Amino acid sequence: MSFIEGVWIALRAIRANLLRSFLTLLGIIIGITAIISVIAVINGLNLYVAENLSNFGPNVYVITKFGIISNHEKFLDALRRNRDLHVEDARAIAQSCDLAERVAVEVHSTQDLKRGSDEVKDVDIGGIDPAIVEIEPYDVDQGRNITEDENARAAHVCFIGQDIVANLFGTVDPIGKQMRVRNQEYEVVGTAKKKGAVFGFSRDNFVKVPFNTFRKQFGAHRSVNISVKAAAGASMEESMDQARRVRRRHLAGRRRHRDHEHHARVGDRTNSRDRSSKGDRRSESRHPPPIPHRVGDAVLRRRRNRSFSGLHAVVDDSTLHAASG
Hints:
By secondary structure, this protein is an alpha+beta fold. 46% of the residues lie in helices and 25% in strands.
């Protein structure tokens, strides 16, 4: 059978079963359309996240204690299993990761702001290392950003978002003005450009303060976020793997150091107790306690007789009675 004859047979079969042919073709069209639509939606979401949700620059990743958590059970598991991140971890990554071009830390808290009678509640307060502006873009609208000198001396200055400008200062120029965070005055040195809202959540409701100032006011025992910019020419995956290895080595070294200090303290306490026990035994050997001589329930007391060189037992009536009874 030739190719042309095969085509004619197929066409006659389609004409003979028009409904079946239409439904088969419709299913194929729906399946292909669904696949193309899903791919388009995924690409669109990726682009939306890259342009609107992400605050990071290119080739940047963040190391956090919790990561992306979708339910309460996972949060509790991460809270129990994951260790806090410290400034020392960021320092170890900066010193040991040649695939990391820049490393900086940030820590967060939610607080209320006040200026006179005006108040803004539930504001994200971020304590930042000034080097983070080279990793995460903080576009300046007015004034400037926080400097290294202000972080070094824990200055009470802040860099604020547009929601804070509108709700706390209104039409007043905020640069150089004061506002309170938990009864502590801060001077506004700069404002950020408006970022807008995503899914109904504003990205302009924030205040950035120097990292050392944050620790001084809110405490130094919070887990930090470590922002890392991969080195030029290195892939982000390779940089992340290297940072992960450095972090594990640093944890192991810190654990060994802590165990060594614990054993040293236990050894010091044991040696102290041993020395104290030996001292007590030597004291007892030099000064033995007096040993009373008992006869029944009576006590015979020895007293040196001045007229004799020996010892003389003296027994009074009550003692004798108790002894003889």
